[in-house]
Amino acid sequence: MTPLPLSLPTARRAGALALAALTLATSAACGSPSPSQPEAPEQLVGLFRFTPGGFADGKPTGTYFKMAIVGGTADGPFVNNANSPVDEGRVTALHPGTAGGLRTGAYQSEAKPGFAGGDSRSGSVITPTKFFDVLFGISTNAVDPQTRAPLPAPSVTRTGTTLTADVSAWAASWNNQEFNQGAPKPVPRTDAAAAGQEQVARAWDVVSQRWLAQPAAAKSTGPAATGTFDAATRRFTLDWTSHIQGGPFNDFTGVWHLEGVFEPGPPPSAAPSGSPTPVAPKKAP
């Protein structure tokens, strides 16, 4: 028996069903979202304004410093600073200095003179803070006071919510002594300048109010500082450890935690690099 041909409406329904099936198959094969492209790294140039250090709910808050004993790690055990009331002295709370915190793309050099009776006078980055009855300060310098190595100005790179920082120029001064506490750690300069340390750029010094030469790259070793960043609020954290060389705390380790809000932009007093000095107009005779 010969089958009856499909009626026109039935044929149309069959064609529509076939087209729908083909569309679904194509969507399943090709319509899934492609992986998003990784976010390009971004240099954060400006002021990393510090939140003052403190202690709440059994843990340190804000910006602070710890010192791990010989053989210790970022988790301790720690030296008890006799002048700190925070966590029985294991945490030394830090407060922002005259600049408000750490500048990237610029230096905050050591005061001149650097000391008064052993106390540090460097107060741009942090307010000088007592550590065993002597004030210590922080500076960032084109030439490191301890290693004499030429160093670039601090820099911070953001990739998504992650920060990576070169704070090799971070230097602590205490009791008439200099201690590089940066990350990565600069290699002490020898009589022969290390390759890659040619002075090829300039950076503004917030303290001396002048342009300083800086190397394209420093000869350094070890990991950089790392941290977190919230693009919506510009809140940040930065953490690193740095070996202490010399002085009464030789072979101890500095543990640094910076926290606060990032404010983009150059230092307010810095004219564009290479711009001529303005000349006052002469008075008419």
Search tags:
Lipoprotein; signal; 4-stranded antiparallel beta sheet; 11-stranded antiparallel beta sheet; 285 residues; mainly beta; globular; disordered N terminus
How would you characterize this protein structure?
The chain is mostly beta strands and 285 residues long. The protein has a domain at 56-66 and 73-155 and 170-194 and 232-252. The protein has one helix spanning 8-30, and strands spanning 42-43, 46-50, 54-56, 59-61, 64-73, 76-78, 92-93, 101-103, 106-107, 115-116, 119-120, 129-131, 134-140, 155-159, 162-166, 170-174, 177-180, 185-186, 199-205, 210-215, 220-221, 225-230, 235-243, 253-264. It is globular. Residues 271-285 have a biased composition (Low complexity). Residues 263-285 are annotated as: Disordered. Keywords: Signal.
Q: How would the global form be characterised?
A: globular
Tally the helices: what do you get?
Answer: 1
Biggest β-sheet description: 11 strands, antiparallel
Helix/strand order: HEEEEEEEEEEEEEEEEEEEEEEEE
Helical proportion, percent range: under 10%
Structural class assignment: mainly beta
> Based on DSSP secondary structure assignment, what is the total number of beta strands?
24
